[in-house]
Write a structure and sequence with these properties.
Aspartate Aminotransferase, domain 2; Aspartate Aminotransferase, domain 1; binds pyridoxal-5'-phosphate
């Protein structure tokens, strides 16, 4: 099986696993049990991981809250800000191409009385900055724009977006789930106020993530979603998952951008362009993209593609995120693809274990589908 679905999830790196293992059975103390050595040992491990994460995204340790992953962090960010800033207003701005964790949370708040603006994107998947600026009103409490799209890899102009939101005195939330580990993310340089990340997207374990919440310029206030015990300074109660947190820290520590992933992705795209000439579309090609992601519209249905390759190749169809409902990808239709084109689209996402030999095999495999 050739695995090209790294945006869905990644295998845990051996080094990460090794670092985690003692915390399941030997060093099993509760990080909140400060009265004995085992507890203190776990607390130290958690705080060490927090330091590594803070260093990775250039923030302070007190600005990191551990969560069960990005979905929870997104819920905490959006609902937490919405509930806290109700005296200011009830308006949230986000984008049509966001992950469902963001869109569904906004839809939930809409039912509770929130007013949500869903910004459109152009055919490259990018928002119009002027449209964003025009959409912000005195009642806008949050602007939520993802760093990089999970389906296309398209990277938004984060620095400009943060400048606009701050000029208009609004908080900027960024879903960086797909960006961390693939490109450099610096919350100071990027001007991000709240940001989520998830370990399983960059060779850490599943079920652990973090929310960064800015403490100054501006200081962001947040209402908790989960109560009971006051862990994580009251923002997220519940016994900390020490092994997973240690794994998240190690996954951050071993992030490396020195690889040939982009070269392999380009090799795949160029070979397919040669093979199909003008009959394929590389979605988001004219925007800045993650180095590992390629979303391609083929001359045949993605379902047929999958039927041919299912046992040999792990990829995602454009509609992966809505597969339960079997709808065409909301990301691709927002990028002006027809429903029919969206149904002919496939996402390849490469990772650090991808080899040139595998990409060549995939190119050959695709040739057999056309014949
Ligand atoms: N946001 C984006 C952009 C994602 O790609 C994902 C994962 O699919 C999520 C959020 C949800 O992350 P998690 O699996 O940690 O809940």
């Amino acid at each position: 099986m050739i695995y090209l679905d790294y945006n869905a999830t990644t295998p845990v790196d051996e080094k990460v696993l090794e670092t985690m293992l003692p915390y399941f059975s030997v060093k099993f103390g509760n990080a909140a049990s400060s009265t004995h050595l085992l507890g203190a040992q776990s607390k130290d491990a958690v705080e060490n991981a927090r330091e590594i994460i803070a260093k990775t995204i250039n923030c302070e340790t007190q600005e990191i809250i551990f969560t069960s992953g990005s979905t929870e962090a997104i819920n905490l960010a959006i609902k937490g800000v919405y509930n806290t800033y109700q005296t200011k207003g009830n308006h949230i701005i986000t984008v049509e191409t966001e992950h469902k964790a963001v869109l569904d949370t906004c839809k939930y708040l809409e039912k509770k009385g929130a007013q949500i603006t869903y910004l459109k994107v152009d055919k490259n998947g990018l928002i119009d900055l002027q449209e964003l600026e025009n959409a912000i009103t005195e009642k806008t409490v949050l602007v939520g724009v993802m760093y990089a799209n999970n389906e296309t890899g398209v990277i938004q102009n984060i620095e400009e977006i943060s400048k606009i939101t701050h000029k208009k005195n609004t908080i900027f939330f960024c879903d960086a789930t797909q960006a961390i580990g693939k490109i450099r993310v610096d919350v100071q340089k990027d001007g991000i106020d709240i940001m989520c990340l998830s370990a399983h997207k960059f060779y850490g374990p599943k079920g652990i993530g973090a929310l960064y919440v800015r403490r100054k310029n501006p200081r962001v206030a947040l209402e908790a979603l989960i109560h009971g015990g006051g862990h994580e300074r009251g923002w997220r109660s519940g016994t900390l998952n020490t092994p997973a947190i240690v794994g998240l820290g190690k996954a951050c520590e071993i992030i490396s951008f020195e690889n040939n992933i982009e070269e392999l992705r380009n090799h795949l795209e160029n070979s397919l362009i040669q093979q199909f000439s003008k009959s394929i579309i590389i979605n988001g090609k004219n925007a800045k993209r993650l180095p590992n992601t390629s979303n391609i519209t083929f001359p045949f249905k993605a379902a047929d593609f999958i039927r041919h390759t299912k046992t040999k190749l792990a990829i995602a169809t454009g509609s992966a995120c809505t597969s339960a409902e079997n709808l065409p990808s909301h990301v691709l239709t927002a990028m002006h693809l027809s429903k029919e084109q969206a149904e002919r689209s496939v996402r390849f996402s490469l990772g650090k274990y991808t080899t040139k030999h595998q990409i060549d095999e995939v190119i050959e495999m695709i040739k057999t589908i056309v014949i």
